[in-house]
Design brief:
The chain has 295 residues and is an alpha+beta fold. It is built from nine helices and four strands, in the order E-E-E-H-E-H-H-H-H-H-H-H-H.
């Protein structure tokens, strides 16, 4: 029986964007992520929103555990907002006096640019947007985007999980097919050895024949490897069905599967077993590539 997924398995690849039309303009927040061993956050946003970075980082970290994630915040002011016919003269005079004092104290300091003067709070009256309202809107957009972002990663994770479980089922079929082959190979070896001894010796030593066959059977016995292989496959299915942050655990299990398949290949004395070992490695590599995408 499959375990219920309170927290679905998720891909590290995801995308979400949310926008809001405000009185002052349009605000947008975009999240995009790709694979990474750890959670690697970066932010691209104007200085008006830079103060929000600690809060943005904390909220994202509560929902995302792994991935190289970029968060973009962009504000486009309304183009139809009418500008005042004059600057705030009193504020401009005060700013000019302060700038003069600053240059007297710091002669090498660069003068303020026209853009900086025009953006000074209050210089254009009430045209400048309410920064507190913009910042609150950005946090609200992040919460909405994280829901969309999580759903995007969960859909991709479900696809990857189904792919992995399909490969697990195929590997089980290979194990079920080759497990009965060992006794058949031992029996064929006994018949072959008996014929060779009969050709070489008039009275073959039955005890020696039995010892040789026993040693051969011990050398090619793969039951232990197959049992461990099935145990790892059971654990992979459990981890995928349990959901949550499963990438690192599954990556470890891929290493264990590969170790057992290598051992099977080293014990092979038939073309069928050798081919099966190769097929198992191909399936493991296919799963491993997809596991790298899981959180």
């Amino acid at each position: 029986m499959k375990e219920s997924r309170s927290n679905p398995i998720a891909s590290m690849t995801g995308y979400a964007v949310e926008t809001a039309d405000l009185a002052a303009g349009q605000l947008s927040l975009e999240l995009r992520s790709v694979n990474s061993r750890f959670l690697d956050l970066s932010f691209r946003m104007g200085e008006d929103f830079r103060v929000l970075e600690p809060q943005l980082r904390e909220r994202i970290g509560d929902r995302v555990k792994r991935g190289k994630l970029e968060c973009r915040v962009n504000f486009a002011p309304r183009q139809d907002v009418s500008l005042p016919t004059a600057l705030n003269a009193a504020l401009l005079n005060q700013l000019t006096d302060l700038a003069r004092e600053a240059r007297n104290a710091l002669p090498d300091a660069a003068p303020m640019s026209v853009t900086e003067i025009l953006r000074w709070p209050g210089m254009l009256g009430d045209v400048s947007p309410d920064l507190a309202a913009l910042q609150a809107a950005a946090l609200a957009l992040l919460d909405k985007a994280l829901v969309q972002f999580g759903a995007s990663r969960a859909r991709e994770g479900a696809r990857l999980g189904a792919f992995i479980l399909g490969r697990v089922d195929t590997m089980r079929e290979h194990v079920a097919r080759i497990r009965p082959r060992t006794p058949e190979i031992v029996a064929a070896y006994r018949d072959k050895l008996t014929r060779r001894l009969a050709e070489l010796l008039p009275t073959p030593d039955a005890d020696r024949l039995h010892q040789e066959v026993a040693l051969f059977a011990q050398k090619i016995d793969i039951d232990e490897e197959l049992d461990r292989l099935l145990t790892h496959l059971d654990e992979i299915a459990r981890v995928v069905n349990a959901g949550g942050a499963a990438g690192k655990r599954l990556d470890f299990l891929m290493q264990e599967l590969n170790r057992e398949s290598n051992t099977l290949g080293s014990k092979s004395v038939s073309l069928e077993l050798s081919q099966t070992s190769v097929e198992l490695k191909v399936l493991i590599e296919q799963m491993r590539e997809q596991v790298q995408n899981l959180e």
